[in-house]
Write a structure and sequence with these properties.
It is built from two helices and no strands. By secondary structure, the chain is mainly α.
Length: about 90
């Protein structure tokens, strides 16, 4: 069984997961930085890092999903891959 893992993501679902992962990382970094800033003034660093980091992750996740949907709806219908699901 020869599997090439070096190829880029091909299916729409793979690309959606990639958008979600990038969004979560992109949201977590500013959330953690904001947590450090708030904790510098108010104390309780672990609480503020976890709360603002978690909010950043959720916001990044939602942004990634919305960006993927926008990009998918913008591409021409002929270039879309069939979903494999049975028609309703």
């Amino acid at each position: 069984m020869s599997t090439d893992y070096s190829r880029s993501a091909r299916t729409s679902l793979d690309r959606e997961y990639a958008y979600m992962a990038y969004g979560m990382v992109a949201g977590a970094v500013p959330g953690i930085v904001a947590g450090f800033v708030v904790a510098a003034f108010l104390g309780h660093a672990a609480m503020w890092l976890s709360v603002l980091g978690g909010v950043g992750i959720v916001v990044g996740l939602l942004t990634g999903v919305l960006l993927h949907r926008r990009h998918r709806s913008a591409e021409p219908a002929g270039e879309r891959e069939p979903s494999g699901a049975a028609p309703e």
